Amino acid sequence: MENKRINGNDLLALGYKENRALGIALKINSKRHGLKRDEMLQKFKEVLADPESFSEDAIFEPLAKALLFPEEKDTNIIPLKESTDAYAVYGEEHIEEGARKQMDVAMRLPVSVAGALMPDAHQGYGLPIGGVLATENAIIPYAVGVDIGCRMALSIFDMEDVALLEKHDWLKKIILQNTRFGAGNGFLKHERLDHEVLENPLFQEIPFISNLKDKAWTQLGSSGGGNHFVEFGSINFEQEDQELGIPAGKYLALLTHSGSRGLGATIAGHYTKLAKELCKLPYQAQHLAYLGMDTEAGQEYWNAMNLAGDYASACHEVIHEKVLKDLGVDRMAKIENHHNFAWKEQYKGKELMVHRKGATPAAEGVLGIIPGSMASDGFLVRGKGVESSINSASHGAGRQMSRTQAIKNLKKQDMLQMLNDQGVTLIGSNMDEAPMAYKDIHTVMAAQEDLVDIVANFSPKIVRMADDGSRED
DNA sequence: ATGTCC
Fold first, then answer.
1. Which of A26, A193, A277, A324 has the smallest C-beta neighbourhood within 10 Å, fewest atoms?
2. In this model, does residue A44 exceed pLDDT 60?
3. pTM, whole model, 2 decimals?
4. CA distances from A60 to A39, A303, A469 (A)
């Protein structure tokens, strides 16, 4: 506890207010400056009590100035709208207040036209996870998110699901051999595969992206960490789906969830920083800095975001092709959909930029995959195209416990029991991804029955996630 | 989410 990072609450406890000075204090704190936690807290206390004596301090001068001249307005700051139109909230009774407040702020951006909150919404950075925001002629890097183009991909094989029992060990081995997990991890040089996404001209045109090409190659087909997974499971079609050409039955399927790895994360960081320099917003909205679509920076982000999306797609493709080859059976269908992205879409007759941060596109007839947890069903769905949701649905069950809460409160024995009850083999993972840390997927699906039709149920049976042991520092 | 902020 001694080394716990100083956060906003610590500063509020010292008497700081939710304003510009708080933001500056946190920024100073993040650089540490060789001060221990207690020393830093003491300094913050002293600056607050007597900002004047710090007005020429090498470290605390900006904080002292913000405290001395709180009302001094940067004339470049773009004001928020006083009021906005209402926005639709699905499953409101299960959504924390923090997510609502973030969405309220996002709606007040001068470029915002419409918004919606999905039933798995929870507090994020900038726009909440599960937030949908439609803007005019502007794109917001942090409304896309850090893991640009993160997605779900589902392959349905021409093999009965009984294989999950009868060929369990073989399937487990196929996952182990063809997937790589963990932050920073990828494939060894001799294991790397080529892919046309690496030929994208942005790898030549933009220097910082060019520097990422080798890592992108190494990480192609890897899954990363957090809530990402690769799993075999049983998909159950209660009735034939004519569009997919799949008869009623239970089949072996592969479901993957991952994103654009280091490439996307670095692109997100680069353009968020640029947006914050070019677009100064009031304190509570600063993470929602936007880039005009008619500006060079906006166009560059749009292109880089699309590259990250294509790369994320290529990562899934590599995994699915390897598994398909090892299985040696036919694939009946492959479905893929992404979240953490921005799309140019028509809304009420106008072209808008629709940001879906942890939300699934659900225009009429569009297929999507909404996973539950490692021990509960996920769903193959077909969108209904509801305008008030901005053609969207949730991207999963959503957390009901933060990672820290889950690690602190949940018992491993309970998780193992749950996995055992459901007949799930788990490779890797950690308590922060325990099924109990997530909302009940059935409640979430009920809250969005107006938004999507369920096509089939997917039950995970052999699940691989990142092993948390790889990052102990 | 990501191998730890220019």
1. A277
2. yes
3. 0.89
4. 13, 39, 38
